[in-house]
Amino acid sequence: MIAVDLIQPISVLLKRHAKRSPQKVAYSDSKTSITYHDLRNTVEALSFNLRERGLREGETVAVWLPNSVNWVISCLAIIRAGGVCVPISYESTSSEVAYRLNDAACKMVFTRSEKQHVIQSELDKRVSEPIVIIEDWSGTEKALNFITLCSGERPKQTLPDDDIERASLIVYTSGTTGQPKGVVLSTRSMLWVTAACWVPALGMTDADVVLSPLPLFHSYAINISVLSVLAVGATEHIMERFSTSEVISSLKEGGFTLMPGVPTMFQYLLQTGKQLEVVIGTKTRFVSAGAIMPAKLNDDFEAYFGTPLLDGYGITETSTMVTMNWLGKSRIAGSCGLPVIGLSVRLVDPADGSDVPIGKEGELICRGPNLMIGYHNKPNETAKAVVNGWYHTGDLAKSDKNGFLTITGRLKELIIRGGQNIAPAEVEETIFKYDGVLDCAVVGVPDENYGEVPVAFVTVADEEGFKPESLIQFCAKHMSKYKVPTSIHLIDAIPRTGSGKTIRFKLKEKLA
Q1: Which fold has domain 189-410?
Q2: φ/ψ (deg, to 5) at 190
Q3: DSSP state of 98
Q4: Burial of 50 (C-beta count, 10 Å sphere; 0-12/13-18/19+)
Q5: What gap in Å lies between CA 197 and CA 459, rounded to an integer?
Q6: What is the pLDDT of residues 100-152, one digit of tens each?
Q7: Strand 285-288 with 488-490, pairing
Q8: What pLDDT does 157 receive?
């Protein structure tokens, strides 16, 4: 059954745990920690101050901070104040940040002083310049002090009704067009995954002590590492970034009962664990999402460490999870598990929409309470993706007679590198800006550590003078590191259909 009491407004969850366990640590990082009592007071004080400075219901606020307790406080306060949180990777380039701030029309931005110049210099002048809230404020002009806004007792003035049905998050995800799409999610849809997936499948409770190396700007991390921890009243340590040695050191010390991650992280943990003959005990459960978990990695990890590694399949548009393997129940090698409780899943023929028989490949479509509200400012894209209430994932899968699903491929062309989505068209757009490139195409190729990595094929005006490493360096200046092609291949002509679409499988055949 779904634990309905977990699907509550932020204000209710904060009040509940502040009353039940006031001195219990809610979240911590390498520099600080905060109890549930202080978390409630801090979030409500910040929420009130955001309202005092002009934030109104439905307006957007960006969080451009590294993983930290302050990231969590900022996110919860924005939602509590009636705003919409727009998470942005702290490693994003200036152009990537500018796109998100402009597209979402952010009224405020939480960030650090070293990033303030980007906001001022890169914003589209047609959009009002947002109020900047500086975490490490030191008298900076035209900015607000984060610590000051969070300080003081919880204000007695009332805040707006905490409506869990309204939009509370816009999470940007790469699309096949190359232009990131803002996925609009509600608090209810996100916490529904807590109640229908994490709690029953993982046995997640207030007794859990979570170690989270996930980047918080991802929907997966927001769901399990922020909102789910709050919903059940658990304790969590947030790592600023994933480090194999730090994770192993933390796990060896003991005390952690749950660690979410992506397959790449578990690949590194297994490799290093074997090299150093690490023993971590069987107290910790591990869960993976964000990319397909290779069956061999799953088996090898559990065999070596002697502890469960549960994986599932999820996407941002469904508030993360669609299927999940359950703790203590049967699993099928290579399968991403059973549909989440209350979620309807079908496998259909992409050509005519008819349901395919058991064992046959079809496009996975789903419908349920965790479905997105839509794509921000993209009604046409929303209409294409959600047809008669069913979200078309673009992923191909097979089902066995017991309902276990196995992802087999993608209709879409997204490359998933270590859980990060990469749109080939976005990378191609950057490559086309490089002098001398006439044509290009980007494809994903298998990689032992990351699952997939992008590689590029290019045609150039001067082959003798062309230096692949220079193009890679150019890409690194204009894109996040994970999007940069790992290799560049010269080709006489990019294979295309009569209508001009790239025939990517032919490029993959050349590599093979």
Answers
A1: Rossmann fold (3.40.50)
A2: -70, -45
A3: H
A4: buried
A5: 47
A6: 999 999 999 999 999 988 887 777 665 678 899 999 987 766 789 999 999 86
A7: unpaired
A8: 64
What is the sign, positive or negative, of the torsion defined by CA atoms of 162, 166, 167, 169?
A: positive
Q: Of 409, 385, 381, 382, nearest to 395 (Cα)?
A: 409
**Secondary-structure class of domain 8-163 per CATH:** alpha beta
Q: What is the pLDDT of residue 499?
A: 45
For residue 101, what are the contacts with CB-CB under 8 A and spacing of at least 6?
62, 86, 88, 109, 119, 122, 123, 127, 130
Spatial separation of the C-alpha atoms in residues 238 and 212, rounded to whole Å = 5
Q: Give the start-to-end residue ranges of the domains of the chain.
A: 8-163, 189-410, 415-511
Q: Residues 6 or more apart from 292 whose CB is under 8 A from it?
A: 263, 313, 336, 407, 416, 451
What the block records as the tokens of 111 is 């960030």
Highest mean pLDDT among 33-37, 263-267, 351-355: 33-37
pLDDT tens-digit profile of 491-508?
Answer: 998 887 554 567 888 898
Query: Hey, is 168 helix, strand or coil?
Result: strand
Say if strands 258-261 and 338-339 run parallel, antiparallel, or are unpaired.
Answer: unpaired
C-beta neighbour count of 355 within 10 angstroms: 11
306 residue type, one letter:
G
Whether the Cβ atoms of residue 452 and residue 421 lie closer than 8 Å to each other: no
pLDDT tens across 64-111, in order?
Answer: 999 999 999 999 999 999 999 999 999 998 888 999 999 999 999 999
Tokens 């979240």 label which residue? Answer: 27
Q: What angle do CA 421, 85, 316 make, to 5 degrees?
A: 30
The encoded tokens of residue 194 equal 């807590």
Tens digit of pLDDT for each residue in 393-425?
Answer: 988 899 999 999 998 877 777 898 998 888 787
SS3 288: strand
Q: Tell the CATH superfamily of the 415-511 domain.
A: ANL, C-terminal domain (3.30.300.30)
